Amino acid sequence: MTKDKDIVNFRVTKQEKEILQEYCELTGRTQTDVYREFIRDLSKRLLKLRVSNP
What we know:
Helix content is 67%, strand content 0%. It is an all-alpha fold.
């Protein structure tokens, strides 16, 4: 593993896991891709929050 990557583990409910699996199947994407996209979206939201709450 390279120095610039970390491992993140967290628990989800069975229903949340099923939603993720179905989304991945329908989009042809991996769970890792979906997690990364969500985190990148959070980065954009964080920037907006910083601008609106100086």
